């Protein structure tokens, strides 16, 4: 039986890239999203898509049940589903905070709790998708940044609590990663391009599969002595405070 991974938010962007890497490396993947499956993934015989609303306990329960019904086991969980593009602090409402918390934090806690008994059996791993914005101060994303700091804390708490059960819990903190929306913003917003690309040591946008490669490593036996780590995959953006002059 192939190893089985659940990837949340798999219909597009980073989630689609993560699912693709796990499939290419021989895993079976149950992808879940509130949207339909991506065509690129649907053609894989080892990919199953389950539409669910992860903001509710019932939605999370359905995902775990669907995975067990199809594959009979769970070896890894990648908590990727989330909301971005938050607003500045003085424009953010209580409803905004609740909406971002429900998916960016609540789904991570609920789905991980449901999957833990199965990971204890398989000796599996959890990989949470944090953010470079959860490692530094960042303006203009009042509802988003606190939730990604929470993901970092959740990762370290779970790693500490369940390490003796053979479960490893790590996180990946992406920087700016390509998507149609990212591409549009870079082309139309000079300030964003300057901050996110010119302010990045590698000077480019990341690709979804590059986040997937990091997730696969942390979920694999190659990382069997790694837990509680938050791995920035951001081209160096989160550490770049004083770049050299342009050449």
From TrEMBL:
InterPro entries named among the record's database cross-references: NAD(P)-bd_dom_sf, SDR, SDR_fam
Pfam families in the cross-refs: adh_short_C2
Domain of life of the native organism: Bacteria
Family to which the UniProt record says this protein belongs: Belongs to the short-chain dehydrogenases/reductases (SDR) family.
Protein name (Swiss-Prot/TrEMBL): NAD(P)-dependent dehydrogenase
Record organism: Chelatococcus reniformis
Organism ancestry: Bacteria, Pseudomonadati, Pseudomonadota, Alphaproteobacteria, Hyphomicrobiales
């Amino acid at each position: 039986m192939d190893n089985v991974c659940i990837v949340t938010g798999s219909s597009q962007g980073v989630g689609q890239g993560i699912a693709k890497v796990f499939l290419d490396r021989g895993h079976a993947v149950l992808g879940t999203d509130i949207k339909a499956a991506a065509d690129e993934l649907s053609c894989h015989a080892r990919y199953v898509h389950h539409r669910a609303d992860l903001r509710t306990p019932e939605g999370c329960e359905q995902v775990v049940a669907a995975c067990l019904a199809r594959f009979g086991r769970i070896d890894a969980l990648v908590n990727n589903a989330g909301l971005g593009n938050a607003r500045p602090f003085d424009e953010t409402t209580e409803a905004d905070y609740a909406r971002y918390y429900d998916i960016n934090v609540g789904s991570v806690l609920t789905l991980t709790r449901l999957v833990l008994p199965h990971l204890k059996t398989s000796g599996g791993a959890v990989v949470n998708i944090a953010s470079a914005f959860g490692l530094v101060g960042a303006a203009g994303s009042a509802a988003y940044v606190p939730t990604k700091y929470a993901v970092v804390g959740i990762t370290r708490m779970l790693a500490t609590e369940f390490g003796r059960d053979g479960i490893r819990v790590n996180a990946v903190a992406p920087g700016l990663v390509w998507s149609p929306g990212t591409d549009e913003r870079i082309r139309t917003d000079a300030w964003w391009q300057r901050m996110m690309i010119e302010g990045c040591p590698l000077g480019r946008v990341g690709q979804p599969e590059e986040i997937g490669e990091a997730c696969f490593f942390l979920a694999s036996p190659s990382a069997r002595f790694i837990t509680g780590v938050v791995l920035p995959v951001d081209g160096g953006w989160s550490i770049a405070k004083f770049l050299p002059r342009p050449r």
